[in-house]
Design a protein that fits this description.
2 copies of one chain form a homodimer.
Chain A: E1 3-7, H1 11-23, E2 28-33, H2 45-50, H3 64-69, E3 74-77, E4 80-85, E5 90-95, E6 98-103, E7 106-109, E8 113-115, E9 128-130, H4 134-149, E10 171-175, H5 179-189, E11 194-198, H6 210-222, E12 226-228, E13 233-238, E14 242-247, E15 251-253, E16 256-259, E17 263-265, H7 268-272, E18 296-298, E19 305-306, E20 313-314, H8 319-332, E21 347-351, E22 354-360, H9 364-369, E23 374-382, E24 393-401, E25 407-415, H10 420-432, H11 437-441, H12 457-466
Parallel strand pairs in A: 1-2, 1-7, 2-3, 7-18, 9-16, 10-11, 10-16, 11-12
Antiparallel strand pairs in A: 4-5, 5-6, 8-17, 13-14, 14-15, 19-20, 21-22, 22-25, 23-24, 24-25
């Protein structure tokens, strides 16, 4: 019997395991997961902490029992793989009962990512959190519940964020203005915390356009989040618990700190086994997710991917890629070689009553490095017919190559519900197909007054940029 | 001085006039419009009749004064062009003061469409309406206002639709279950009318998928619209006013009837001048919208377009095409030949709390006629992460060619606000780029829990169909 072994039981791992077993029921599929949770939606953690999702179990799309019983997958939770021997074709897993040596014919590394803790003093203090795992989410939610009950923390003078709750919790700090930082600003402010968001660079959501970053920062401020831009956090101080965020200019009292300073791939296991990393620091693979070691694959947050515009390897650890590439590996190891496609670096974020999406290459320096001559235009247009009783605006930044007109990237922002995110889909399609702004300008997009203007804002952006390229 | 003459002052005509004048300020641009309204959003008329838009003026995007004064266009409302002489290169316009003979160097016919009145007895009765023009909209709104005041009509027993208003108006009939019929069902039911919708075929919105049609019909019924499917209206009877809709099976008392039985291109003026029509009955043009007569162009609802999937001429009279092709003609006549692109037959509709979109070739017979071997799949999936507190479902029907996997068309339906319409944009892009279902399956679409599932429903449909093609 052929054995397919998977290390890591989240999106990439369980997608691969499920697909492989479905396509080849004779295959022996063994999954090692060091924790107890599998196949969960980490992207939902901010909404769990916020209190909109009642139980961590709700984030689990398929339970361990269902994998075992319904899908006939040999899923071993609480098993940490500590070594791979590519010559013997075995992995060694440690667990409560001891150690298991498991032979494999095909192996998938789906070891995921871990939160980056910035190299500053004080991150080990109590009250300093990250949000990379289900247990992180659990701890944060418990902290929020305690703070709201007021049983463990002081209740200093309350800021304006307290309009959300009668009984307000104290000031907190978020280090990092990426999408975790922004989503958690909403989650914490909605629970009555006075939120200080510290962003090293001059704008939040640096992967998005300037226009999007400004719209989001403005909106965060409208919702009483104190946004500190261009602010390097130097140290966190306190006794046992964190008490102060120290920057170059200021000392800000806080009752907790969330570190939202990105993630890095978990690669130690692979490196120890002689599996090559790419320039991004994540595991290098070919288009089929196979590593430099034959029959060893890598997918999801531990691996790099090719960028759809540049063709170059990039590290974009996001859920859809993990699912897609995991599934592709499941097909490949059962005899149907499947690439699973490139990534566009597409991301979406909600912050209070605003939504934003980005895709492709927006940064002009990055575009030039890839051989393009980038040009961008930003337009703000009505999200629905001007006469329609509902509606807002969508701001679209579109970037293309001046010479060829090829679309390179886009960033969109609108009020929540006004369609910035779903509108980005057309641009993802366009840049994946290497379409030009003229092509996009002529797309026969759906129109009716409750949904857009005759020229959808995406088409307006293409029209305007079309006058700039060439 | 070169003169560009435009016949018809709505979307195509005013787009062409504005673009031509902007690109070549020296150009003499003359527009003849037989009515008083120009550049208006006819798509907004159902919402005006419903009462959500307070004034017809709100539907006007640019006023005649602004065209004249700000854009320096010689716009002559109340001027009906009655003849074109291609040899002399003149048009003859009749107006209150008499007749004008206007020379042209380039001519655009943007004469639009007119409502089709079905060939049955009784359509001339009072109380029988169409909704093709601003004056139609005005009459209907006045009717609704009168009926609601109860000053001119009987008030028979009220049906369940009366839950919308305390004071209810009587039963009305809508002939035709296309998007005008569906939108007007909402507009009239929301005003307390008991609405009978008569559809000749077995489903409403025949250009959409079966699944979409069923979802919309079910929802109309939930909102107390009486949907009569497979029902041929044979005659309308009454004294001066319409009183009864007579079908094969039934006689239904009504106080008014709206005919929503489609439109046809206005082509008499073109035909009289020897301008060729295509097989669709609309004016035939090349890719630059030039007719068989040199320097005479046609765009908008009077002209046919090429279909993006089949390349064949089709008649799809919709607003975006009129705007796009009009604008392209404006560029072409000022020295920058511009095609303006093909059409995908994309359409969107809202009906109460449901939204739907369609694009491309869905009908298997039409696909086979175009040389494809069509195969379709329909999936229903969560519109947002299952654990997210908001959300509904999106039902996606996707059609592709079995042999090549090329995407041919799609139809989507969801609760209003759950994104069926904006999600269709990605599929429009994909089919315009001649992408396959495998391509679509691998698009790196934006994902976050408030907006979709990790695999957006569009990707789920592609995944499922991907297993069927080849």
């Amino acid at each position: 019997m052929t054995t397919f072994v998977v290390v890591g039981g989240d999106a990439a791992g369980m997608s691969a395991a499920s697909k492989a077993k479905r396509d080849d029921p004779e295959l022996d599929v063994v999954v090692f997961e060091r924790g107890e949770w599998v196949s969960y939606g980490a992207c939902g953690l901010p909404y769990y902490v916020k209190g909109e999702i009642q139980s961590l179990e709700h984030l689990v799309s398929v339970t361990p029992e269902a994998f075992r019983e319904e899908r006939d997958i040999d899923l071993r939770t609480g098993h940490e793989v500590v070594a791979i021997d590519p010559d013997d074709r075995t992995v060694t897993a440690e667990h409560e009962g001891g150690e298991t040596v498991q032979p494999y014919d095909r192996l998938l590394l789906a070891t995921g990512s871990e939160s980056v803790v910035p190299p500053i003093d004080g991150t080990e203090l109590e009250g300093v959190y990250t949000l990379g795992s289900m247990s992180d989410g659990k701890e944060l939610r418990e902290y929020v519940a305690r703070a709201r009950d007021g049983d463990t923390l002081q209740q200093p003078d309350r800021g304006p964020a307290c309009r959300y709750l009668e009984d307000c919790a104290g000031p907190v700090g978020i280090v990092g203005g990426g999408y975790i930082g922004v989503e958690m600003a909403e989650a914490l402010a909605a629970n009555g915390f006075e939120v200080n968001l510290f962003q090293r660079g001059e704008r939040v959501l640096t992967g998005f356009s300037d226009a999007t970053s400004e719209a989001v920062a403005d909106h965060l401020r409208e919702r009483d989040v104190v946004v500190h831009l261009g602010t390097d956090v130097q140290t966190l101080t306190g006794g046992d618990r964190v008490e102060t965020v120290v920057t170059v200019d200021e000392r800000i009292d806080v009752e907790m700190v969330l570190l939202g300073t990105g993630v890095r791939p978990r690669t130690a296991l692979a490196e120890d086994a002689g599996i090559a990393l790419g320039e991004t620091g994540a595991i290098e693979t070919d288009a089929y997710r196979e590593t430099n070691v034959s029959d060893v694959y890598a997918a999801g947050d531990c691996a790099e991917s090719a960028h759809v515009v540049t063709g170059e390897p990039v590290y974009v650890p996001l859920a859809l890629t993990a699912n897609r590439h995991g599934r592709a590996v499941g097909q490949t190891v059962t005899g149907k070689p499947t690439e699973g496609g490139a990534v566009a670096g597409t991301a979406a974020v909600k912050a209070f009553d605003i939504e934003a999406a980005r895709t492709g290459i927006l940064d002009h320096e990055a575009a030039r490095a890839a051989g393009f001559d980038p040009v961008s235009e930003t337009v703000t247009a009505n999200s629905r017919a001007g006469y329609y009783p509902e509606g807002g605006t969508v701001t679209v930044t579109l970037t293309a190559d001046r010479e060829t007109g090829r679309i390179l990237g886009a960033s969109l922002v609108s009020e929540y519900g006004e369609g910035a995110v779903h509108r980005s889909h057309a641009i993802v399609a366009a840049l994946t197909e290497a379409a030009t702004v003229s092509d996009l300008e002529n797309y026969d997009l759906a129109y009716a007054p409750p949904f857009n203007t005759t020229w959808d804002p995406v088409l307006v952006a293409a029209k305007v940029l079309s006058g700039t390229v060439r």
